[in-house]
Amino acid sequence: MGTAVYNGEVPTPSLTGFTLPITAAMGAFFGLIAGQSTGLGGLLGIAAGAVVGAIVAYILVTMVSYKTGRWGAIVAIGLIGFFVGGNLGLVVGLIAGALLGWCAYWLHLGKYRRSLPPYATSGQVLWHNSFKFICGAIFFFLIAPIITIIPLSFNAENFFTFTPEMLALDPAGYSLQHYRDFFTNDDWLRPMKNSLIIAPFATIISVSLGTLAAIGLSQSHVPFRRAIMAILISPMIVPLIISATGMFFFYSQMGLWMENTFGISKSLSGYIKVILAHAALGIPFVIITVTATLVGFDNSLTRAAANMGATPTTTFFKVQMPLILPGVISGALFAFITSFDEVVVVLFVGAAAQKTLPWQMFTGLREQISPTILAVATILVIFSILLLATVEILRRRSERLRGMSPA
Fold first, then answer.
1. Measured distance between the N- and C-terminal CA atoms of the chain, rounded to whole angstroms
2. pTM for the predicted model, two decimal places
3. SS3 407
4. Which CATH architecture has domain 185-401?
5. For 115, which of 10, 59, 169, 278 is 20 to 30 Å away at the CA?
């Protein structure tokens, strides 16, 4: 990686033989993107980007301190991007400047070896950093579609593509009209209402049954625990289309039985069928999260409560539940997300009266292309991020309660 190790010390990497070539290569990559987007041509963009990258790296590591150099690279290359490509060029230039400045100092200061022992060979250092970059590329590949959807939801036109005004960052190219359509159009508000009715009820059933099942299966005296666990989490393993087909035949007969026996309406029986079907999909998530929480549970606490005269119900709510509550809430959040985002089962089990938000999005993509779908997708993405952040906070709290991580 351009350095040699002597007596456990890592000397400063070569400027001309290591730092400048790699930074120039990164600059050439950004130059290729700029050249293609501005019409200057790929070869000219690569050459200009490589020169700019090499010059920036040389100035930063030889003349400027770390913090000043990082901000200076961001401002300088941002201005270059603005003069070449306008507002969009400014944004790209700011990103390129931040990355080029970071790369120059990261290489020249030897930070690429920071997490490795001093005796690591060049091949080990290369693989270590290559692996991190590969993981970063995979992560970007996974979130790129989500990143694309969010700005498209503010499109002022009824298109699913970036307009020239949007690419130029012209305020006239952006609008909240699709969000206004979502919050004022009954075609979207009704499915949203159905989702907010079905998901909470399905979550309550999933949490109740899943928590009891997890506690029961955590007892060593329960026979065939592994087989029962495999059956209970099978909805996560079986392809969803197969589960939806089986649920269709089962719940259709169940709906007829409820309507003929109790005289309930078709609409109410439809809601009950969808809620029960979604609860079946959410139970495995509750079982897994609660079971993971019970791994570090001290059973001597329940025995001590029983010795003090507490009933099993009192022991559960006063002793066991407070300690496993983070796992229960995490399972509830996963069950809620599963029900709120599910579309295949509701297509098989539900009717038009139970149309949920994902169902309406699927219909909108298939029958009428409406950019409002992008606004709805953005809202769901933000909602999912908030729920997952809550799950992570609860996971860390659970680890602290069980003494698995420092407070």
1. 39
2. 0.74
3. coil
4. Orthogonal Bundle (1.10)
5. 59
* Backbone region of residue 248 per phi and psi (left: phi > 0; alpha: psi in -120 to 50; beta: other values): alpha
CA 215/CA 279 separation, integer angstroms: 18
3-class secondary structure, 244: helix
- The answer to whether the CB of 100 falls within 8 A of the CB of 26 is yes
**405, containing H or E segment:** none
Q: Is 37 exposed, middle or buried (0-12, 13-18, 19+ CB in 10 A)?
A: middle
Burial status of residue 292 (CB atoms within 10 A of its CB: 0-12, 13-18, 19 or more): middle
Task: Tell me the residue type at 158.
Answer: N
CB 343, CB 362: distance < 8 Å = yes
Q: What is the mean pLDDT of each run of 10 residues along the chain (407 residues)?
A: 46 74 88 76 83 88 84 88 80 88 87 82 86 90 86 84 80 88 89 92 94 86 85 88 90 87 87 93 92 78 82 82 84 90 90 88 76 87 84 74 55
Q: Are 383 and 315 in contact (CB under 8 A)?
A: no
Q: Is residue 34 within 8 Å of residue 85, measured between CB atoms?
A: yes
Q: Is-contact 380 341, C-beta < 8 A?
A: yes
Q: Give the residue extent of every domain in the chain.
A: 15-120, 185-401
